[in-house]
Amino acid sequence: MKLRHLLEHLSATPMLKALIPFVVGIALADLYVLPLWLLAGAFVCTGILALLLRSQTAAIGMLLAAGFAIAEWQEPTSTLPLGIDTGYELRIDGIPTQRNGYTAAEATITAWRDPLKGQWHAAEDRILLRADTLITLRSDERLRCHGRLRPLQGGAESYRRLMARRGMVGVLWIGERNLLEQHPEKHDTWHSRAVKRLKRLTLPTEAEALVRAMTAGDRSGIDSALRDNFARSGFSHLLAVSGLHTGIVFALINLLLWGLPLVRRGHLWRTVAVTVAVWLFVAVAGFPPSAIRAGVMCTLLQFSLISGSEYSALNALATAAFGMLLWNPAWLGDISFQLSFIAVAAILCWGIPLCRRLRSRWRGLNIVIDALIISVVANIATIPLVSHTFGIVSLTGILLNPIAILLATGIVAGGVIWLLLPFGWVATVVEPFIAVTTEALGTLAHQTAELHGGVIEYALPTGAMVTIYLVFIGTTLVAWSQKPKKIVTLRR
User: CB neighbours (10 Å) of residue 3?
Assistant: First the structure.
């Protein structure tokens, strides 16, 4: 074990080294409050010292001050009155979902009425909207209603903290009597168009709900029983469009255009086509943060393939994290953000090296081994955070995730092909394929959730979770300090 090997490893990931102090600065902003002028001065002074003296310590201080300042600057502030009956104008964000006895949606309040002066004030505050099931809510439509905005209450503390991280300032309940005006959006978004196109497929109810959720991010058809089965089986990550789904689209388009580089400048056209397809998929899904992260990763990878530059996936992951936290520091506390990056980082640091070490002569066996290793590594890496946040650990899901991911790949591929080619003859092929794969996935989730002893209900304490991840990081650094072994394959 040598420090030189560790430094060589870290030198290939400069963005990872820049990300760490930036994240620490954002985390410190949650604990302390400092004036912005002081943080700006610290940023300028440390930046000048870093340039003049080429001091790494000054550079670390500059990044720490930057993270602290950006987190404070973008701290959400709300002027909305809480607990007071008044009028609101709001816009529905995303696609509403049916829950037990009510309709749930995220919305943005664009204006509110001062109950004392009768004046309307502009606003741009996000809320959780709860409506009577007799009211039909549609994506992007505008409402004028009367109600009482309440603070985030009830449920687990972790859920309230997550909603606050996502910028939610309160909860508004409305019924038929509270709704004054309702104006549907005149122009369809990519998201709503994709949902309408997927609804044209003749599929069973559960199959349609799954393909809409996994292809377009529309979870309005997912009922509580199906959601619970996927949660207890460890497959809940498949119901939300994430890096996995974006990666499937990335691989699918590359596979469909595999012969394009054979023509003149074909590799450039394929890069453009893949990049456009990936970001169209992100738009279709409604730009969820996990899909945006994956879109950045896929774009960096695709352009690195034509530039001939050495591609560091871990450095690209750190670049995506840095850019997203620069845009919205609150994502650092978002559970989906945390799970996504922990899983991908674990795959890059441990999954891929283990796949290389356990390579065999048989290609078919290698595919099975690789899928199992990647699934086990990603699940083990996220177990502490899942247990701490949700109080549940799916043991059977660790081993069965490769099968679930394979079925999910088929569902997403079928949905994407239909979105690209919405012709009758395509539907005759896609419909039975999606029906079979969704039924298989639903059955697998149900059977896995029913297995005795397959799920452990335990909430890991914060200290224990932090300790486990520190051990993970320490073990990774020790592994990076080892001299890489040269593997020579002898042909017979």
Answer: 8
Cβ count near 466 (within 10 Å): 13
DSSP 3-state helix, strand, coil percentages of the chain (rounded to 5)?
60, 15, 25
Residue 60 structure tokens: 């670390």
d(CA 284, CA 17): 34
Residues 6+ apart with CB under 8 A from 32: none
Of 380, 352, 346, which Cα lies nearest the Cα of 366?
A: 352
Query: CA nearest 275: which of 294, 289, 260?
Result: 294
The fold for domain 85-183 equals: OB fold (Dihydrolipoamide Acetyltransferase, E2P) (2.40.50)
Long-range pairs for 18-21: beta carbons < 8 A, 24 or more residues apart: 18/63, 18/318, 18/322, 19/318, 19/321, 19/322, 21/60, 21/61, 21/63, 21/64, 21/67
Backbone angles phi, psi at 148, to 5 degrees: -125, 115
d(CA 253, CA 265): 17
| Span(s) in the chain for CATH 2.40.50 | 85-183
Q: Which of 246, 98, 213, 112 is nearest to 170 (CA)?
A: 112
Give ∠ CA 160-161-162 in degrees, rounded to 5: 90
CA atoms within 13 A on the CB side of 179: 18
Smallest Cα–Cα separation from 28: which of 56, 65, 73, 81? Answer: 65
For residue 342 the two structure tokens come to 């922990």
pTM: 0.78
Determine contact, residues 413/214, Cβ cutoff 8 Å.
no
CA distance 355 to 438: 29
Q: Per-residue pLDDT for the chain (492 aa), expressed as one digit of tens each?
A: 567 767 777 777 888 889 999 999 998 988 888 899 999 999 999 999 999 988 889 999 999 999 999 988 887 777 788 889 999 999 988 778 877 788 888 899 999 998 888 899 999 888 999 998 888 888 778 999 999 999 887 666 767 777 777 778 899 999 888 899 888 766 677 888 888 899 999 999 999 999 999 998 888 788 888 888 888 888 888 887 877 788 888 888 887 887 777 788 788 888 898 899 899 988 888 787 678 877 887 887 777 666 554 446 788 788 888 988 998 888 888 777 888 888 888 888 888 888 888 887 877 777 778 777 887 888 889 889 888 887 878 777 777 888 888 899 899 989 989 998 888 899 999 999 999 999 999 999 988 888 777 778 888 888 999 999 999 999 988 888 876 655 444 444
Match 């945006």 to its residue by tokens: 292
Which amino acid is present at 2?
A: K
Q: Distance between CA atoms of 338 and 29, rounded to whole angstroms?
A: 18
Query: pLDDT tens, 424-468?
Result: 899 999 999 999 999 999 999 988 888 777 778 888 888 999 999
